[in-house]
Amino acid sequence: MINIYPAIDLSGGQVVRLIQGDYGRKTVYADDPVSIVKKFKSEGARNLHVVDLDGAKDGMATNYTAVNSIADEGGLFIQVGGGIRHEPRIEYYLSHGVNRVILGTVAVRNFAFVEEMVKKYGEAIAVGVDARDGFVSVSGWLEETDLSAPEFCKRCRDAGVSTVIYTDISKDGCLAGANLPVYGELSRIGGLQVVASGGVTYLNEIEKLNEIGIYGVIIGKALYTGHLNLKEVIEIGS
User: Which is nearest to 192 in space by CA: 138, 127, 132?
Assistant: First the structure.
């Protein structure tokens, strides 16, 4: 069974999608995020992936109100990322209905913080590994590093992180298919739940990810454009 996470990306309180993480290539899909949550729930969603794009870029989680509204809707396992770089933000989200928070930039710049938070909050802490050409990117994908993304996933596992959200930036928002080879590599990392993100467009990709043992898959633009039907995707994951 593979867990399906329809995605809501927030910017200025609106539901948007970027292409390859480019903030200048943004499409607005809804002014009211809760309307999208209700639609996903009506189609059978049990999980939700939420990203504060503004927070990811500038480190200031500015979409609190929208996230709170989404969490208040209830009935979903919600994971949230974007600009979560201090413990008070983690505490805030977890106390307001969010089930799991995703640490991204801070995981690269202050790995000791990740280790400390995992010891304190356990499985409620995930790490977002955003990769371009196999190397980790940070600050809303605007800054590249020389860290090998697969090796960084292993380091997270060794530190006690149970879940990694791995995004191939080059595929994200392009409707050109996912990077299946890298997920094949990641699936062989024992003791780590890998959630695949970036470019998932076709049902057979989800079937393949399921077959190789990937824990979850995030689907974004393909849902908003109608390339994928959430009900059909969920049937594969069941």
Answer: 127
Query: Burial of 74 by CB count in 10 Å (0-12 exposed, 13-18 middle, 19+ buried)?
Result: exposed
237 forms bridges with which residues in the sheet?
none
Q: Is 130 a catalytic residue?
A: yes
**CATH number, domain containing residue 72:** 3.20.20.70
Is the pTM higher than 0.85? The answer reads yes
Report whether pLDDT(141) > 70.
no
What Rg, from alpha-carbon coordinates, does the chain have? 16
Task: Give me the catalytic one of 9, 52, 54, 172.
Answer: 9
Amino acid sitting at position 174: C
Q: Which domain holds residue 205?
A: 3-237
Answer yes or no: 158 catalytic. no
- The two beta strands, 143-148 and 135-138, are antiparallel
Of 52, 54, 130, 172, which residue is the catalytic one?
130
- Identify the band that residue 60 occupies on the pLDDT scale cut at 50, 70 and 90: low
